[in-house]
Amino acid sequence: MTTIKNFFASRWGIVSAGVFVGVFAPLLQKWGNPGNMGICVACMERDIAGALGLHRAALVQYIRPEIIAFVLGAFIASLLFREFKPRGGSSPIIRFFLGFFAMVGALVFLGCPWRALLRLAGGDGNAILGLAGLTAGIWVGVLFLKSGYTLGRATKVKSFPGWVFPIVMVALLVLLLVAPQFGRTPEGTPTGPIFFSSKGPGSQHAPIFISLMVGLGVGFLAQRTRLCTMGAIRDVILIKNTHLLSGILGIVVAAFIMNLVLGQFKAGFTGQPIAHTDYLWNFMGMALSGLAFALAGGCPGRQLFLSGGGDGDAAIFATGMIVGAGFSHNFSMASSPTGPEAYGPIAVIIGLIFCIVVGFTMREKMA
Amino acid sequence: MADKIDARGLSCPQPVILTNRKMKEMGKGVFEILVDTDTSRENISRLAQQTGWDVEVKKADADYCLVLRKD
């Protein structure tokens, strides 16, 4: 067990986790997931919000098994390696809204940091603007961290709170499989409570079993190796350490090769799948997300893996993201392939103000 | 008596920041840092390796006590 632990903590360990994501994300796309969206934590949580009726954007509603499996894979890994530690209580309401605004920013860009990497590996030039914005947001977050920013200590809690999020994921799996319908309108449209898209990205998905297996693998490996896109960029800026960065380079290189092999690579800015070409708001959306991730201590994937390990604060961040997705679509803040919607830019600015206020007010005097 | 930092319950990357700050402040010597997650233990060990500090990991109940040393 110690040898396995040491391997996962090594540079080759994290590279192998990145390569796993980079190989299987394009394959999931081949097997049915939307373009350059083999894996996207933000988009997939958004689809779950839609499937639960938290928004009614008919094209993006599906209970994505990958999200469920990310949490459960991390849950299994943390139990197996005796790292399951139920904890919480570190500024939960702040973390909720950091998650909320992280999602607002991600849906203005149209993707989480992982999807930004996968879009780049698929040839989508707009991802460069997103990754630049992400880096800028994280850089601001690092300035706050250096000046004593903290959300305070989490404390150990009873066992059950650590189990809640994994149990919620099992409940989502049941809802995915059963898909209850309470009735139909006179026109024959299902009235819910579960909504699945019949066209658009929400209708495109790999077979459930395959998505679950890949997701479990990603969750397991990412829990062991601490794979985190935000952490990768942050550590380079903060302590000039490239350990986590080698993981995300693994994602990009492997996904690039896979996309070439599968014929999914298409270089350019226009006509890219589920993407728009507004440079400014691609940058600004991800800048907001990057800052929110840095202040919360992890990218959306990492927050799911931490949730699986019993971290209630990370689970609250993830819940904030799902609620944020509902608001993003209901309040016309989420972009479409034609560009930002009416209230996307103002929502990003409000989110940035929120994050900056958090950054300035949540500081402890340095010794 | 070596200086002791309690970084238990702090989320990533604060234990690393506290360690890094202490290393720069001391230049050399011995100090201890208490952490409560394997992630923090690994991150601080990696930082120590990168900056030329020796690290000794002691288990302290459910936590870890890392002793950092540079001569």
Q: How would you describe this protein?
A:
- The complex is a heterodimer of chains A (367) and B (71).
- With 367 residues, chain A is an all-alpha fold.
- Chain A has one domain.
- Chain A has a two-stranded antiparallel sheet.
- The longest helix of chain A is centred in the middle third of the chain and has 21 residues.
- Chain A is globular.
- The termini of chain A are far apart.
- The model of chain B has no long low-confidence stretch (mean pLDDT 92).
- Chain B has one domain: 2-Layer Sandwich (Translation Initiation Factor IF3).
- Chain B has a four-stranded mixed sheet with strand order 1-2-4-3, with helices on one face.
- The longest helix of chain B is centred in the middle third of the chain and has 14 residues.
- By secondary structure, chain B is of the alpha+beta class.
- Chain B is built from two helices and four strands, in the order βαβαββ.
Explain the layout of strands and helices.
The complex is a heterodimer of chains A (367) and B (71).
Chain A: H1 2-9, H2 11-30, H3 41-51, H4 65-80, E1 87-88, H5 92-109, H6 113-121, H7 126-146, E2 155-156, H8 159-178, H9 208-225, H10 229-239, H11 243-262, H12 279-296, H13 300-308, H14 312-330, H15 344-361
Antiparallel strand pairs in A: 1-2
Chain B: E1 3-6, H1 14-26, E2 29-35, H2 38-51, E3 54-60, E4 63-70
Parallel strand pairs in B: 1-2
Antiparallel strand pairs in B: 2-4, 3-4
Helix pairs in contact in B: 1-2
Descriptors:
heterodimer; A: mainly alpha; two-stranded antiparallel ribbon; 15 helices; 64% helix; globular; B: alpha+beta; Translation Initiation Factor IF3; 4-stranded mixed beta sheet; 38% helix
Summarize the structure.
Chain A is an all-alpha fold. Chain A contains 15 helices and 2 strands.
